[in-house]
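Team,

Forwarding the record for the chain on the shared tracking sheet. I've put the sequence and predicted structure together so nobody has to dig through attachments.
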Amino acid sequence: MGWSRRGFLVATAAGAASASLSGWARAASGSAPALLLRDVRVVDGTGAPALAADVLVRGDRIEHIGRIAASAARGARIVEGGGRVLAPGFIDLHVHGDPTTQSYASHLAMGATTVVLGQDGASPAAGDGTAGGIRAWFEALERALPDINVATTSGHGSLRRQAGIDDGTRVPSAAQQARMAALLEADLAAGSFGMSTGLEYVPGLYASPAEIAPLGQILARHDAVAMSHLRSEDEDKVDAAIREHVEASRPARTHVSHLKVVHGKGAGRAERTLAELQRMRESGIPLTADAYPYLASYTGIGILFPEWALPPTDYAQVLANRRDELRAWVEQRLLRRGGPDALLFGTGQHAGRTLAQVAQADGRPWPEVLLALGPRGGQAAHFVMDKELQARILVDPHVAIASDGSPRGRHPRGHGTFAAWIEDFVVNERRVSLEEAVRKATGLPARILGLKDRGTLRAGAIADLVLFDPARVRARADYVDPFALAEGFDLVLLNGQPAYQDGEPTGVRGRLVRHRAAGA
């Protein structure tokens, strides 16, 4: 149901104290000694060929790359790289969860150092309908001291609700539209990296391009990005959905979240969509996307229900008045998406079982199980993608790698995406070079966000780094055990300090990363 499932040496430079590296990691950043990573294979995130070098980190920055004599690094801690790869920490463009209450050690374990929240039209928890919006959430995050670097976009659906627009409203009033624009301006000024839409979900599915277009103008003025979970990812609708997103976002930088072609087949089908994206780029549209190396999506089962059965519609009334029509709809919809064996519940009483298994155990037809659960009946993995089609999307140079995962989501992507990317596409199947694989997880997402000091390994950049041997990288998470941690990433530095080593987090805390337009 997918691709194959998927202790370092420390020395002390002359004159340094003999404390362990773990002790160094716990030291205050202002007093921590320099760190020399010696004899590493630098893969810098630009796509350039790997370089054998030493790397000196001082404070939270990379100070020097090259051959470094011990005398030049007096007092530094030394990590013997032994020829292993040293790369920028991976930047996960599409993440869920709440770092004010959850640990992202699972992301550190797979080499990720920065996560981007605010996806699919939903702002992070405290920014969703709360007075103060993103600014209030930033304050809560900084008090919580997350264990990973955190950035966010603003969710269009959350802005809509904050502006007092009822979920089912299709045409906001002029006052509501102005309020939504003001809220977005405030979020961007506070440090949000852009705006996400979730046009397949409530309330985004009720929004027209005319509602979104003025917000795209605001994004462009702030040099921010417009991300979207498209209105449809189905094979016969996805290209039109991309065009809708592009037109509504002009002239902002435009990005497609978790690009896929649901129930499409073959690399040739991927080529058609990718060619259309390339034509848009050639016409001057700054257009990118992201994807993950799994064949199942993970979302609510509401995606199987027609719009007329979704909130704010009274579902009990739909069942009472249109039950037969609804049953026929969900049956046809799921059959097109692979049938009841292709739906694996991830939450609720049925977690870990397919719809077919639940129906068999209950002794009733599977469409009846869905009707009983309703559109708010839980989350599930949906096995709706073709391997060769998605593989072609993943290797496209304009498509970044992003997990769409979370620490608690019952999908292996939240614990395995970057490990699976290296293990399967670089080592096992050799679809991309290591340098290109790293670029698509570091330099490319940094460029998409507009990050200037992360994403590439160069002198002066923030020292978010990961040390690993590609041959030892393993994505252990699967659909039976989606929480198994990745293996093979030996050392992860956050802002110059070891945050993950020897298979364990060290307790080092990350930072809030704000969009540079906010002046932070």
